[in-house]
Design a protein that fits this description.
Elements lengths: L1 E4 L5 H12 L4 E6 L4 E6 L2 H4 L10 E5 L20 E3 L2 E3 L5 E5 L6 H13 L4 E3 L17 H14 L3 E4 L6 H5 L4 E4 L7 H8 L5 E4 L6 H13 L5 E5 L17 H8 L4 E3 L1 H5 L2 H13 L4 E5 L17 H17 L6 H8 L1
Parallel strand pairs: 7-8, 7-14, 8-9, 9-10, 10-11, 11-12, 12-13, 13-14
Antiparallel strand pairs: 1-3, 1-4, 2-3, 5-6
The structure holds phosphoenolpyruvate (PEP) and manganese (II) ion.
The site of phosphoenolpyruvate (PEP) has 9 residues, from loops.
Length: about 350
Amino acid sequence: MIIITRKGVTDEELDHIRERVETLGLRTHVSRGEHRTVIGCVGDEERLRTIPLLSIPGVEAVHTVLKPYKLASREFVAGQGSRIRLGSCDVGGEELAVIAGPCSVEGLDMLRETGHRVRSAGAKALRGGAFKPRTSPYSFRGMGEEGLEILARVREETGLPVVTEVMDTRQVDLVASYADVLQVGARNMQNFALLSEVGRIRRPVLLKRGMSATVKDLLLAAEYVMSQGNPNVILCERGIRTFETATRNTFDLAAIPVLKQETHLPVVADPSHAGGRRDLVAPLSYAAVAAGADGLLVEVHPDPETATSDGDQSLDFGEFEGLMSGLKAFAAAAGRTLNPLAAASVSG
Ligand code: PEP
Ligand code: MN
């Protein structure tokens, strides 16, 4: 249930409304908009119906949220969508948040070089897996903590925040002690223990859509994180499994505008895993931006041919710079900005 307060509601009135709701055993989440403040109430709604909510000073209206996801639903915040701070950029704001880097951290030199190159091309954050979910147990499974140390070092040198995957509840504190954003991968999107664990901390979570998950499943996974107290969830469309075999996954473009309607959370797209081929990264990126994505997650490697994972879909530096410069027109058409510094350095 959401309580919409009247214009100019005072802090005392807000506190009083929350107190009335919380004494009934429900939890409250306040969202302040430019004109209105909304109080989201989660818990047993039947109990709320036992009190005359409209008679509490400051309350203007009360709505029932019919969607199964409450905190993630669009109605739950007043005004525009949520913005999540990522270094110098707000994911969900006007500027497109491009997160780029290798699939796996393979060493200091390659990550350092990648960090500098993607930053000067306009990326806002550096990605790189230290703990890798691999289909085969015999494939390279990441550098582990050493990889996290490398990420932190490159962050210091480049100023770029780092995004890396956490695969296991036992690793959450360790990964959070190094990373700016915790990635929950497609294979773990419904690992409810892990979702609850990353909900316990405040660090932003990049939640990737499971390969067989519906939009509703994805939003309910976000709800798990948020219901533990962490509102900082960025959703990621990365392609789903279908009967089509021409691409690694099927990029569900429509999920982007659908998610933007359903939720206030920022939505980014991962054209690398969606297509699984480097030649598809640019067209899928342009389409994602045109469809309303707030950012992109792109795999970039100094020498894709030698990558320990996902080389086929990784861009080299020149290709990434080309992507960033091609994106300019699509960003502008979608009413977005792309780091102007980046545009200058790419053409220079
Ligand atoms: C990745 O980002 O490298 C990754 C493993 O992604 P996904 O979980 O979407 O497969
Ligand atoms: Mn990958």
